[in-house]
Design goal:
The chain has 81 residues and is an alpha+beta fold. The protein contains two helices and four strands. α1 packs across α2.
Length: 81
Amino acid sequence: MMKLSISDKYDNTNKIEELRNAIGYVYSDNHSGTYNSKLVGVSECGNIAYTEEVKGKYSNFEPKVGIKSQQSWLVWNGMFS
């Protein structure tokens, strides 16, 4: 499993803290049936992010109920890149 590094070697930002500070935010998620998810938590080690699907602004699809776990680097890329 690929891990999200704690400190970026180029700009010294803390990627895991960025994710933790973004809990509650909705982001574009290509792995979601609605193409939108909300970050609801990050594991203690920082390698797993917990998300839930939310209603998309431009989608007629209904969100699936429940919490989904994804690798944190994937969620970070969806939110910040």
